[in-house]
Amino acid sequence: MSTLLYLHGFNSSPQSMKAREMQEYLLQKRPDINFICPQLATTPAAAWAQISEICEALAVRNDGHFGVAGSSLGGFLATRVAEVYGVRAVVINPAVNPQVLLQDYLGEQLNPYTDERYLLTAQHMQELSELRVNEPNCMARLWLLQQQGDEVLDYREALEYYRFARVCIQKGGDHSFIGFNHYCAQIIRFLQL
User: Fold this and answer.
1) How far apart are CA 71 and CA 78, in angstroms?
2) PANTHER family recorded for this chain (predicted)?
3) 7-50 pLDDT, tens digit each
4) How confident is the model at residue 97 (pLDDT cuts 50, 70, 90)?
């Protein structure tokens, strides 16, 4: 059985709209695909440890074919999964430099999905810097889904970073990626699941 690993974004959860839409699509159209969408730890190093553990387990299974999709900070992490594990990835309005973007969010945080409170610190920005794929070799296995109307991230940053990947850029939209459900089947095809 193939597996789709879906990675949610900053202060999000498996209950995010895109995660739920993808899970619903798989339940209805592709029940042969295992869907994993963990509640990621609030700190980057801990989240990466979780993701690595899942990927290691998937890689050693006899039928361990898997792909990854991620949105925003999840797209940043999905890029690292593609680089480290040699799998295909779809990144949706991804954060390219979260260690810079999240500087404005240092301090107390509240995840609106889980009600978890935590402190975002400069150490976490360092962890993000260490997780960034600075010279990616995985671009042939990546698909960027980007909307220009993203109010959180500058879409041009993603276009530059992912310029050697497959790219789908849309005018308008927003950070949630309006119309994501229309891409579920194409994402599964691209990931070869």
Assistant:
1) 8
2) ESTERASE YQIA, ESTERASE YQIA-RELATED
3) 999 999 999 999 999 999 999 999 999 999 999 999 999 999 99
4) very high
Q: What is the spatial distance between Cα 156 and Cα 148, in angstroms, rounded to a whole number?
A: 8
Instruction: Identify the band that residue 64 occupies on the pLDDT scale cut at 50, 70 and 90.
Output: low
Q: For 121, phi and psi rounded to 5 degrees? A: -125, 170
**Of the ranges 50-64, 105-119, 144-158, which one carries the lowest mean pLDDT score?**
50-64
- Smallest CA-to-CA distance from 47 within 155, 115, 130, 106 is with 130
The answer for residues whose C-beta is within 8 angstroms of residue 189's C-beta and 6 or more apart is: none
Cα–Cα nearest to 21, from 189, 187, 145: 187
Q: What angle do CA 29, 93, 169 make, to 5 degrees?
A: 85
Q: What is the CATH number of the domain that holds 35?
A: 3.40.50.1820
Tokens 């042969």 found at? 32
Residue 17: both structure tokens together: 């709209």
Total domains in the fold of the chain: 1
SS3 62: coil
Q: Are 143 and 87 in contact (CB under 8 A)?
A: no
**Cα-based angle 191, 168, 129 (whole degrees, multiple of 5):** 75
How far CA 83 is from CA of 16, 17, 29, 142, 183, in Å, comes to: 25, 26, 29, 10, 23
What does the alpha-carbon distance between residue 143 and residue 7 come to, in Å, rounded to a whole number? 15
